[in-house]
Amino acid sequence: MRYHPRMLERISEAGTAEGVRERRFDIVRPEGRVPGVLWTPEQAGSATPLVLLGHGGAGHKRDESRLERAHAYVRRYGIAAAAIDGPYHGDRAARGREQRYDATVAGEMVGDWQATLDALLDLGEFDEDRVGYGGVSMGTMFGLPFLVADGRIRAAVLGLCGVRSSARTEDSLFARLVRDAPRLACPTLFLMQWDDELFDREGVLALFDLLGSADKRLYANPGGHAETPQHVRDLGLEFIAAQLLA
Amino acid sequence: MRYHPRMLERISEAGTAEGVRERRFDIVRPEGRVPGVLWTPEQAGSATPLVLLGHGGAGHKRDESRLERAHAYVRRYGIAAAAIDGPYHGDRAARGREQRYDATVAGEMVGDWQATLDALLDLGEFDEDRVGYGGVSMGTMFGLPFLVADGRIRAAVLGLCGVRSSARTEDSLFARLVRDAPRLACPTLFLMQWDDELFDREGVLALFDLLGSADKRLYANPGGHAETPQHVRDLGLEFIAAQLLA
Fold first, then answer.
1. What is the reported pLDDT for A2?
2. Where would you tag: which of A3, A81, B38, B211 has the fewest CB atoms within 10 A of its CB?
3. Does the beta carbon of B185 lie under 8 angstroms from any beta carbon of chain A?
């Protein structure tokens, strides 16, 4: 266990499997502790590229998809990965607050991610010029405002999100997305499920249309919100890797 | 020069460059001669996969894009490529008929492609179970009806086309596209330019929506009709190769 002067209160080894070293950490913020997981190559250099993984609704920092992607980034590309629990998710689920997604929660998550990135870069292991972000659905609702607010992210995979939703999400959050989207600047792969039952087709296309990035790519496949095919996941990894390793 | 009993009237060596063997051929049809080009690996096996390349409006069988793609297929993947001049294009341009795209022309092109594929498979060099098609814009207007009529194509790259256009194209052609699209069955990557000035956004999305293929993938990028980025071209090649070489 290591104590860190700034925001990284605790970081501890969680084990190494198949060449992937996993560490648990907590970020201390005025609003509370933010639990996270860091995955790095077992044999890491001093300036490893890093991708931040935002989980979806009902997911958490170490759900199956996060774990699968993190291992793929590390093992295929030598890119480190980190994930944190979003508000009301994972280890932060038991705080007794009602689960609503609104602009206030998005603002908290922006702070969580910024503090996390600060702390991770302070470790001295990562290349601050090669940081990516991948997160769809709730990972885009909260990730897009972070990317726009922070400016350190060089490539992003976003999507499964639009300018409105049939899921329980406040208008204030979508108002923020619509306001933030034109300010996005990094190369972005935007994923869409053509038959998404939570985000209507026109609303998803409208959000893609609003994105300010000169290099933005829409990739749509048939199926519902939770039916993203495996080849799409691979394409997301390839996109981030191509951008960060170029 | 070699004479062929069926429709391949003439095939002749045009040279070999960088490991790519090029041959010129003519297909004899009641409506006239169809000139084509065939590119194969210099050291080819007996069951080489084959991709048919449909050119765009004002293009021809051996325009810059066809040549670039053909060489890429052969050199990167060992996949053979063939292209023919569409009606009123390339060596067929001087017939004095007005250049209009309608259902009749599309029907001619279906016959041209079917005769070409018959003749090429008769050469005994290609694997009839691994034939792909790549063609956008006019290459989709004429290619989609061919794919639906023929059924031998196992993977396709289509796009830059919708259910209507601001370019000079007859309604009868779009009526055929709308009728044929739901009958398309092969895995298809459908390319779109988000700011296409010839095919409006909603009309392009409507055509993608109509495609019957269970595996269909929409990939859209910013820019006008003729501004497809290089990475999209690479993705098209990768898609065909993954399908034919799986």
1. 42
2. A3
3. no
Reported ipTM: 0.88
Angstrom distance (rounded) from CA A23 to CA A30: 23
Q: Chain B partners of A211 at a C-beta cutoff of 8 Å? A: none
Separation of alpha carbons A230 and B7, rounded Å: 43
The nearest CA of chain A is from the CA of B222 a distance in Å of: 7
CA B57 to each of CA A31, B114, B139, B225: distance values in angstroms, whole numbers, following the listed order? 60, 20, 8, 11
pLDDT for the residue A12: 85
For the entire predicted model, the pTM comes to 0.91
Q: Over 80: is that where the pLDDT of A196 sits?
A: yes
Which parts of chain B register pLDDT below 50? 1-5
Which residues in chain A (190-209) have CB-CB distances under 8 A to chain B?
Answer: 192, 194, 205, 208-209
**pLDDT given for residue B36 in this prediction:** 96
Q: Give the helix, strand, coil percentages of chain B, each rounded to 5.
A: 35, 30, 35
Token pair recorded at residue A158: 């976003």
Q: Are B158 and B140 within 8 A, CB to CB? A: yes
d(CA A73, CA A212): 26
